[in-house]
Amino acid sequence: MDLNKEYQSLINSNSLGDGLRMTAGIILPAIVFNYFNLLSIGIVVSVGAMCVSLTDTAGPIHQRLNGMAACFAIGFIVALITGFAVHHIILLGIAITCICFIVSMIGVYGSRANSVGVGVLLIMVLTIESKSQEWLVVYNAFYILAGGVWYMLMSLLLYRVRPYKVPQQLLGNYIVATADYLRIRGSFYNKHVDYNKSYQHLLEQQIAVQGKQDLVREILFKTRSIVTDSTNTGRILLMIFRDTTDLFERATTSYQDYEKLHQSFENSDILSRFQHFIIEASKELDEIGLAVKSNQPSEESGVLQKHFQELHDYFETFRDDNRTPENVESFIDLRHILNSVEDIVNRIHTLHLYTTYDKKHAKKLPSASEYEKFITHNVIDLKLLKDNLSFSSNIFRHAIRISIAALFGYIVSKFLPIGHSYWILLTIIVILKPAYSLSKNRTYQRLLGTIAGAAIGVIVLYFIKDDTILFVCMLLFMIGSYSLIRTKYFASILLITPYIMILFHLLNHVKTESILIDRVIDTAIGSTIAFLANFFLIPVWEKDKIKDYMTRALIENANYFKAISQAYTGNPATISQYKLSRKGAFVSLANLSDAFSRMLSEPKNKQKNSKPIYQFVVLNHMLTSHIATLSYYASPLAEKYHSNNFKPVIDTTIEKFDTAIALLNNEQDQTEIVNDDDRNNPLNKQVNELMIKRREELQQNLLETTTKQTLSEFKSIVDQFNFIVQIATDIEELSRQFQLITE
User: Are 623 and 731 within 8 A, CB to CB?
Assistant: First the structure.
């Protein structure tokens, strides 16, 4: 996109909206109380608002309100306990340890509960720093409570004013991420493509798309006013989400044997023309995503359709000039790529229409009960908490880890002759995460971001002496840091540090050198403690959990295949069954890819069997793509070509899935692989007969015949079944090898 589009995307982004909301919610109490000469109270209220704001992540409004309410309610109790214990070193140490453990354990209830825990721990740390006396402890706890209530009410008011803004922003992000995925797909048509690098980018982008898809699904399907068909806007948003998800699946179906295609057309420009057009289509998707985020209709110029017609005509001419009996299969593959591209173009056209929010485009949608099947409800069940009180639970280990690290950080801070030593605790709490890879990355990012941010702060304070200008700079740093805190951690820390330095300067006119030294030293100590704790205190390595992700991905892909393949035997699954199986396959594949990426961030001696695991990830990605392609053919062709001849290859494939799953679970002994290719003969025999007949027709210069259409359609279906059974065989063999090397 050009600079203007980048600017439009930024100002309409959910991240900037979060930054502005958080900044306003935090700064306003301090400004108002300062007007009445009560700045010290205003700062405490702002602290409460800041801690609660961390829980105000995107999601259904009732979940956001519940998270904020839980944060300020628990935070009020923690502020009282910490405030009364702060003057007793041993008692405070016990309080820190217990609070860190208990609050961290609530992370078993999901990511929002985890953010509640972080917010509460920040309240604990900042209460330690206040060192209030007697009844001031109670007053401060109520001020923190008031700050949390204020922020929640402000957030609720903003939601009431613009209830669809956040869903539109998140949906726009999802569309843009899908465009990036499509763009990466296009790279496979590049003559000099690096397949390993492109696959790596594809897997990473699929994780990103899946994460955004899950978030949009959560906020749309759990918002009653949207799923109950009460408004035209709600219905349109659901249709945009549905069609974007279908488009994403269509993009995944474009998998072909790219190496074979390049060999067949290496002396022509046909593949580069496909790549250029796919990039053009992805840019059109970018436009739609921006339009959805900004709540503006996207302008469809018609250029994409025009260029597709040009590509279509070029393909027809190129095929007629270069087709021979020997390369007819390659042209059939290229024809199906063209059909896939045409389908994406049509979906893009539909999305353009939806952005007008015209009522004539709103269709009847499934009932709210149908959407319930696609969402997960997080129920506060004490049994779940009890079940996780075990060393087999990653959350339990994390709770112990952060408790010990925080206690050690507190002890260290007592022996350091520097101010603001609470930054050590703050750093530990923010950096330590259940996953080693995330903690390691945050350690580096926080340390480097603090040093770089401190340099920026020094420059700003050195050259700017006017307090009003400094205050404006602080606001800009605040907005930037809170906008990026959930997406770009390094950049957020880079901006938080000068913001804090300016804040201390404005409040107390503390020397810049003092703040700089304290900030950098405390951050370095806290980062070191967090890193060592994550490495040595009952760590959990991805190599110990990766098999669970592998098994789940294979199970979900098998379910996806079963739901799709039924149509080819005359027993099609329902739309709901198909979409549920699709969701399961895509989510589990993204989870597997993400787990593998985390494993690669761990120490080398912990990355066991990374090569076969990578092969397993790639094979499952290919498998999902081929099943998605099979699902695309099912709608127009399954009824036409369904027969019992498909049953042998379906049964063979399912058997291989079951065997691979049993091997991964160590439920089956090593046995020889039975060559059962003969079971696929009924389908392959039909295709071979059609191929022979078609070659004869071409030799007789018979171009348009019923054989051509039948071959094009039926061969495409059979090819996908053959691809899938071959991948299932490869996965079975890989699972067999994996069982041997992990015994």
Answer: yes
